[in-house]
Design brief:
Blueprint lengths: L1 H18 L1 E10 L10 E6 L7 E4 L5 E3 L3 E2 L1 E8 L6 E7 L3 E9 L5 H10 L2 E4 L2 E5 L11 H5 L5 E4 L2 E4 L2 E8 L2 E2 L5 H5 L7 E9 L4 H4 L7 E8 L5 E13 L9 E13 L2 E10 L8 E2 L19 E2 L5 E15 L5 E24 L7 E26 L2 E26 L7 E27 L6 E22 L30 E7 L2 E17 L2 E23 L17 E20 L2 E19 L3 E20 L4 E12 L3 H4 L3 E2 L5 E4 L7 E14 L4 E13 L1 E8 L4 E3 L2 E3 L3 E8 L2 E14 L4 E18 L2 E2 L6 E2 L2 E18 L5 E16 L8 E15 L4 E14 L4 E16 L5 E8 L8 E6 L2 E6 L6 E13 L33
Parallel strand pairs: 1-8, 13-16, 36-42, 39-44
Antiparallel strand pairs: 1-4, 1-5, 2-3, 2-6, 6-7, 9-10, 10-15, 11-12, 12-13, 13-14, 15-16, 17-18, 17-55, 18-19, 19-22, 20-21, 22-23, 23-24, 23-54, 24-25, 25-26, 26-27, 27-28, 27-29, 28-30, 29-30, 30-31, 31-32, 32-33, 33-34, 34-37, 35-36, 37-38, 38-43, 39-42, 40-41, 43-44, 44-47, 45-46, 47-48, ...
Length: 989
């Protein structure tokens, strides 16, 4: 019995010891210089099972940390390009073993190391996916954007970066913000060859990252880790070009392009400068639209990037400059500063067309318009971040910001909406709209976060507050057509030539109304948050959070009906139907508990909030209307993360939020500013309530260099703010005025808005092609409810009755990218992406599907010949196909450039080439909605010829050498070559 007990005891103890695990850490340095080696590959395997290898890499300052390993004896091999392998053994018998400093000796064992480094394309730790930049080759003069386009799971479209189904909101460089919230500028301002790694992660809010309690206000971000050898020196790119457009009718025959970027890095002190001047529609930046001139501000919920928008349609003449500076001060590096300033001036000209078909369940009409616009804009933007580490337990962060915007648009649109009454159409109406406006405004504000640890680990307090103020002016002269539909077909103008309906005589279908509108507005907001966290167990925390936001807005709109297009208002009073003033105050308060559990590879966070919103407003027109509403809701946020191992990660978000109606949506007044499209507010609107689910799975096979990502998202909204529309409502009497509009609309609450999306990405290297292949596929389904038809109550202006229509759209997309890693002299990227859509309307008795398909095949090539001669070429074929409404639109865009490398180390290049060789470039967009399909086109840059000179600035290290091979991480390692895209003026627009 004793022997049996002893045997059992020894077995249990042995099993317990065997089951114990620990981690191994080390620091990898150059044996000769002592400099850290970033990106070294560490391979560890049990001495008794050498086939069971696990790999990991050294990171910042050469630090390396292994995955969890069972206690026992191991063999370790450390390798890096240009160094001899370092082989050693160790015994792990404690939870943490530090191997100290491991020194790699320079050598020539390149072949074996390349084999290992080739596989290390991606890795992951927690919610961070890290891409090894050395595994994705791009041209020496490529920017970060070109590098990102080759990485699996990342897409870049017109400067907008997306990954795992989410838009990137900020770019960080070595952990510091770079050009604020302007992602487009950031990815075009750094050379790709300066990048060691690209890290995609979920950035918590300033308050949450200190306490660890995710508050649901985080966002997707990218951190660019630079090579150690490029953190001390000056680098960048300068370019200038001059060209000629020989085509007849060109607005500007002579083309020019100049600009560049310069980065001056000295350890933590970093200065980046950029400039861009051209008339070839290069707009490599986003701008802050505080005036709302693009039609939106990113949603009522706000958040990071809420005002950032991409440039508008058309061809622009651009002037832009920017500067970004960051540094660390103090004996203990306790103060960190980051700030950026950006200015841009654009003059955008656009010739546009719109062809719109109304179909069941709408009245079968056709709308065709042609427009011209000339818009001039100025933007100044400054933002900064100052962080003071008061002590080990206290931290203070300030974020001051200022922006100014001026917008001067001139536009005119004419056209016809027509449908023969005998065929069920609404008749014939003429569109004649003109606007000449001058808008300007500024926004100033700051935020502050104070964070403190209160002794016990996990016990923290966070105070977070902000204030902002804006002042805008919006003045305009405009005219529009007051006349509604007529039953008779217009006569053809004498001697007119062209397509119907643009040869019809509008004289009998036009009654212009001339308006001069003055609309100043001011607003301010105050926000405060309080968060307290308390540990309740070794791996668990609870929290209590209180939030308060108050926003106030005032607007005074005065519109005058003038006699003619001189827009003189002398002796006139504001029109009572078109003028009003309002003020509003929104107070939102929420309070609730939270819970956080984190242990090793698992993390779970849950927050629940009781929310009360109070609206107090007043609208003044002929009389005064007070608006007061209170809303009570419960919102929630949950996040679960499971790191199964170093290769597999699961992440799940579940949350909810509310959107409360605005004062203008609740006002019980008519909006007759467009006499053909009249609307009315709805004082009975309720807040919409949205539930959201996001799921992510990431697999990174380090040994084989394969990456797989899958995401799924779902949004559904209760009390969705839907449009209620009546087409051809007939004659309306509004305060003794008679109107005959084409459309009358209001808003109402409807349940049943849905959006479902799933997307998969798989990337892997193809050895025999020496290339990386990425393939993506996804499906998106949306259901948008609305109300069509009904009766207008003449007393209240609200619409009763009508029928619900659910506009459903199912979209399928696929994308494949093959990016070469062949050599520094031969480089190509081939890609194809296509989207197929099916749109239906529930009110359409025939259940007909509106089916359409668009796809683009694109190729980029760069060849470098002996003596430094170069060929850069790109081609893109785009086709739009409509199966239901039979149409086909396609174009082939080709760019070609011949060049010669000049100067020492070939850092300069002279190029001669042509943009849009076949002169086929087009801008075409198809959209669908509740009972309609629309095709739209806008102006683009066509064919032009240009000579360009480019100079790559490189000066590194204490000795200021110009030879990039002299510095750490940039020796005889294979050069990254890229998509072979055209130089800056040859990008696709």
């Amino acid at each position: 019995m004793k022997r049996l007990l002893m045997t059992t005891l020894l077995t249990v103890v042995s099993a317990a010891v065997f089951a114990q695990k620990g981690t191994v850490t080390a620091t990898i340095v150059d044996a000769d210089t002592g400099n850290s080696v970033v990106g070294a590959v560490l391979s560890v395997s049990p001495t008794k099972s050498p086939d069971k290898k696990q790999g990991f890499a050294s990171g910042y300052k050469g630090a390396a940390s292994s995955p969890a390993l069972a206690y026992g004896e191991y063999a370790l091999s450390v390798s890096f390009i240009g160094y001899n392998n370092l082989d050693t053994t160790f015994r792990l018998s404690t939870p943490r073993l530090n191997l100290g400093t491991l020194r790699l000796k320079p050598g020539v064992q390149i072949e074996t190391v390349v084999k290992e480094a080739k596989a290390l394309r991606t890795s992951q730790k927690g919610d961070t996916v890290s891409y090894n930049a050395g595994a994705f080759k791009v041209t020496n003069d490529a920017d970060v954007e070109g590098l990102l386009k080759k990485m699996p799971g990342i897409t870049v479209t017109d400067g907008v970066v997306e990954t795992q189904g989410e838009e990137i909101k900020k770019i960080f460089v070595d952990g510091k913000e770079f050009f604020g919230e302007d992602v487009t500028t950031a990815i075009k301002s750094l050379p790709a060859e300066a990048v060691d790694r690209v890290e995609v992660f979920n950035k918590l809010s300033d308050a949450a990252e200190f306490s660890g309690m995710d508050d649901g206000e985080g966002y997707k971000a990218i951190n660019i880790v630079t090579k150690p050898g490029m953190r001390q020196g000056q680098f960048g790119k300068l370019y200038a070009g001059f060209g000629y457009d020989a085509e007849q009718g060109s607005d500007e025959r002579f083309k020019y392009l100049a600009g560049g970027n310069a980065n001056i890095f000295s350890g933590d002190s970093r200065l980046s400068l950029l400039g861009l001047f051209n008339n070839v529609n290069q707009q490599n930046f986003s701008f802050e639209d505080i005036l709302g001139v693009t039609g939106g501000n990113g949603g009522r919920r706000g958040g990071v990037g809420q005002y950032m928008t991409r440039p508008q349609s058309g061809v622009a003449r651009v002037n832009a400059i920017g500067v970004n500076y960051s540094d660390t001060w103090g004996k203990r590096d306790q103060v960190t500063f980051q700030g950026s300033y950006f200015f841009n001036n654009t003059n955008t000209v656009n010739h546009s067309t719109t062809d719109k078909w109304y179909e069941a369940p709408m009245i079968p009409d056709t709308l065709m318009t042609r427009g011209y616009s000339d818009t001039r804009g100025f933007n100044h933007r400054f933002n900064a971040r100052l962080e003071w580490k008061i002590s080990e337990n206290q931290n203070l962060m300030l974020r001051p910001r200022f922006s100014y915007q001026s917008n001067d648009p001139w536009s005119q649109t004419t056209g016809w909406q027509f449908g023969a009454p005998s065929a069920g159409g609404s008749g014939y109406s003429y569109t004649d709209n003109f606007s000449d406006a001058l808008r300007h405004g500024y926004n100033v504000g700051t935020s502050a976060v104070y964070r403190a640890k209160l002794g016990k680990a996990g016990r923290t307090i966070t105070l977070d507050g902000s204030f902002s103020y804006s002042d805008n002016q919006n003045n305009s002269n405009s005219w529009s057509n007051e006349m509604g539909s007529q039953p008779d077909r217009p006569e053809v103008m004498e001697g007119a030539e062209g397509e119907i309906p643009f040869i019809w005589d509008p004289a009998a279908y036009l009654t212009r109304r001339y308006l001069r509108t003055l609309a100043p507005s001011t607003s301010y907001s105050v926000r405060g948050n309080f968060t307290y966290t308390e540990p309740v167990a070794k791996y668990a925390q609870v929290s209590l959070q209180y939030r308060m936001t108050y926003s106030s807005q005032e607007r005074d709109t005065r519109s005058y009906i003038t006699a003619d297009d001189t827009f003189s208002i002398a002796g006139l009073k504001p029109d009572p139907l078109l003028s009003n003033s309002y003020r509003s105050g929104y107070l939102t308060q929420s309070v609730g508990p939270g819970f956080r559990y984190a242990k090793e590879r698992s993390r779970f966070i849950a927050n629940v909030y009781y929310q009360r919103s109070t609206l107090d407003g007043e609208i003044t027109r002929n009389g005064s209307e007070k608006i007061s509403h209170s809303y009570d809701n419960v919102t929630y946020f949950m996040m679960g993360e499971l790191n199964i191992n170093r290769e597999n990660m699961l992440r799940l978000f579940i949350s909810s939020y509310t959107d409360s109606p605005t004062v203008t949506e609740l006002q019980s007044v008519y909006d007759v500013s467009d006499a053909q499209n009249i609307s009315h507010g709805n004082k009975y609107l309720k807040p919409s309530y949205t539930h959201r689910v996001n799921f992510h799975y990431v697999n990174s096979n380090v040994e084989k260099g394969r990456t797989f990502m899958w995401m799924f998202s779902m949004n559904t909204t209760q009390n969705y703010t839907a449009t209620q529309l009546i087409q051809n409502p007939g004659t309306l009497q509004i305060e003794n005025n008679t109107y005959n509009p084409l459309y009358y609309s209001s808003t109402t609450n409807l349940d049943g808005y849905w959006q479902l999306r799933t997307h998969m990405n798989y990337g892997f290297p193809i050895g025999f092609l020496k290339s990386n292949f990425n393939v993506e596929a996804g499906v998106i389904y949306t259901k948008t409810p609305s109300m069509l038809g009904g009766e207008i109550d003449p007393e209240t202006g609200l619409i009763s009755g009508g029928e619900r229509n659910d506009a459903r759209n199912m979209g399928y997309d696929f994308r494949a990218v093959l990016g070469s890693n062949i050599s520094e002299n031969v480089d190509f990227t081939l890609s194809w992406n296509g989207t197929y859509n099916e749109a239906t309307n529930s009110m359409d008795a025939s259940r007909a599907k509106n089916r359409y398909f668009n796809h683009t095949a694109q190729g980029n090539l760069k060849l470098i010949f002996p003596l430094g001669f170069t060929l850069t070429a790109s081609a893109s074929y785009t086709q739009y196909i409509g199966f239901t409404n039979d149409y086909r639109e396609s174009y082939l865009l080709c760019n070609a450039w011949l060049g010669k490398k000049v100067f020492r180390n070939q850092r300069g290049e002279i190029m001669v080439g042509v943009n849009d060789l076949l002169n086929q470039n087009k801008s075409f967009v198809r959209t669908t909605g509740s009972g309609w399909t629309q095709n739209a086109t806008n102006s683009v840059i066509g064919r032009y010829y240009m000579v360009q000179f480019t100079y790559n600035l490189r000066r590194f290290g204490k000795k200021g050498s110009h030879d990039i091979r002299d510095y750490e991480g940039m020796g005889d390692a294979p050069q990254r070559r890229g998509p072979g895209g055209p130089p800056p003026m040859g990008r696709f627009h």
